[in-house]
Amino acid sequence: MGSMSDPGKSAAERLATQVQYLKGVGPRRAEMLERLGLRTVADVLFFFPRDYEDHTDRRTIADLEEGSLQSVRGLVEEIELRDIAPGRNMLGMLVRVGNDHLRAVWFNQPFLFSQYRRGQEVLVSGKPKLRGLMWQMVHPRVTMLGEDEPEATGGIVPIYPLTEGLQQWHVRRMVRAALDGYAELLEEAFTEEFLAAHNLTPLAVALPEIHFPTGPKSLEKARRRFVYQELFILQLALAIKRQQQRTLHQAEPLEATARIDARIRRLFPFELTAGQEKAIAEIAADMASTRPMNRLLQGDVGSGKTIVAAYAMLLAVAHGSQAVLMAPTEILARQHALTLKRMLAASEVRLIELVGGLSAGERSRVLEQIAEGEIDLIVGTQAVIQEDVRFKKIGLAVIDEQHKFGVRQRALLRESGGDPHYLVMTATPIPRTVTMTLFGDLDVSTLADMPPGRQKIHTYLPTEQERERWWSFFSKKLQEGRQGYVVTPLVDESETVAAKSLEESYEALANGPLEAFRLGLVHGRMKPEEKDAVMAEFRSGEIQVLVSTSVVEVGVDVPNATLMTIESGQRFGLAQLHQLRGRISRGRFPGYCAVFADDPSEEAAARLKAFSSTTDGFKLAEVDFSLRGPGELFGTRQHGLPPFRIADLSRDKAVVEEARRDAQQMVDADPGLASPSHARLRRMMLVRYGKALDLGDVG
Ligand code: ADP
Ligand code: MG
Questions:
Q1: What ligand is nearest to the CA atom of residue 617?
Q2: Which of 265, 270, 335, 343 to mutate to test the pocket of ligand 1 (most atoms within 8 A of CB)?
Q3: What pLDDT does residue 189 have?
Q4: Out of 2.70.50.60, 3.40.50.300, 3.30.470.20, 3.90.1150.10, which CATH number does the structure's domain 457-614 have?
Q5: Nearest partner of 66 among 155, 127, 133, 150, judged by Cα
Q6: How do residues 229-278 score in pLDDT, each as one tens digit?
Q7: What is the pTM of this model?
Q8: Looking at the domain 54-159, which fold is it?
């Protein structure tokens, strides 16, 4: 009980007390806790349960029913471990409840034996089954009552993340000790007015409640408070980040005057959609300013992001600056270069395509021209451009098919000639809560509409038995003059997965169902020249069917291609499938997409079903998100942010919006968070996000 009786220490110092000094912890357990990231008392206080078990349905033996989760309170009367077969054992516990008994059994969990002892008071929770005359629960959860676990946990019981050697009751007891000894030292982060205005439970109430709930409603309110707090603090950090981006860096203002605007538009081969117009207006407004643009352009596959980027690039060039377009793959870089060259045929804009395959001499000549400012527009892969390009005067960097552009990459570009404006374009839409959090430091433009004249795409999930029918349909469309793709997932040599290797499927098709047609093969390990040659032949129609790995996923734009076969579809993510399908919605003919799947898991089946039920990328992004959660692509770590402790972006959508609005309001009113009433929030924000978001010293 050292903590409270230590008058010399500040609250902060006491909250920083090492866990091992908490009642019942000690050095050995402290080591286990370290593995969970728990070092101090404060860590323990904010170590939230990952789930709860509802033990509120208390029964007597006479009231038990089969079917639902029920709890019984009693005394351990007997406990016995015995072998039931070689390598199998059973732990049986007889619990006396008044004059009746309940049997609890566990199979192959002998380690539980040492945890219980006769005479112990326990709460046993599980689904009861009547076995003969005796009620039995298989693998129930047992909560120790009595001295270790006071009755407070009797209702809704917290389930904490564990690590080897640690039991739920260890953690519960430790949390209880931390709450009893230290919770009152915590300071409330929000003012009373703020709590009231935003319907938030005060910390002093919410903290005990989230650990040891007194009821479902009050638990939900407590949870809301912590979710809100976590998201609010992130949003404060993001708002400050946006503010800093506006003030700390200087870019050249590149205004779209009426003359420049007209000169750019003359080059465009079609009328822009309303969405494209809106995005261009937003981009032009950003670029007219001395603060560097930091904009995310998101739109569904085929929504026409390229032309929007072209506008921005030509705007930079019109001001005598250079613009660079970076693509993730060579095929896509080549494609962009082609599109732009075609568009710029009648202009004086000097464009260079910087991909692999140049001779050393050519390459250094090109790099010199760029450095001298003799080239206006540079198109290439990210890798190549970041590696060795030095610009004369870079006005705009466009990053295509990429979700984010890192701090380090920015620094590289900056080194090579000033702070440019940035435009990042996504491959597919991003769920709204994700743009508001993980992309919250960017401004967002959304292309919500599609260019006119888009044809419908039909999506099928044929069975193996229907394969022949699909190929005959595929062939018929080829005979009508259309082209198509066959995509197989990339399979690592070492993988024993039964997915067909690319060459095999190529051979099988060329000598089988598609033998009457001209087939081409493209994959990531081919040399750039080889890839180019194949793509050019496909574009010109010489090749009718392109057999490939998912390298065609990004950006390939061949309007006459209307057929897509995806093999082993269970191995692709929803966004990837959507990208693939996006290859065949580009012209005036309807598209047909078939996805074959071998033995899909339940989740994969749900994914494929969603995929076949809509072509709306915004909807699919939301479905994907709710099926998978943030996943790898949208995980906090991926973005360099610390993981959430309690917030869940798909579950807590409404709170994300609310927190974002409120945080922006606070930063608008108090830009440096300098007011004393914001000091604590400001400190919490810096501790958590200062480094990840490179916030420096705010204020
Ligand atoms: P994405 O957003 O997937 O990058 P693209 O920019 O490649 O889409 O555009 C897809 C196709 O739509 C291209 O063939 C492009 O020329 C065409 N396109 C884009 N905008 C329009 C428009 N406003 N009217 C007609 N066709 C358009
Ligand atoms: Mg694109």
A1: 1
A2: 270
A3: 93
A4: 3.40.50.300
A5: 127
A6: 999 999 999 999 888 877 888 889 999 999 999 999 999 999 999 999 99
A7: 0.75
A8: OB fold (Dihydrolipoamide Acetyltransferase, E2P) (2.40.50)
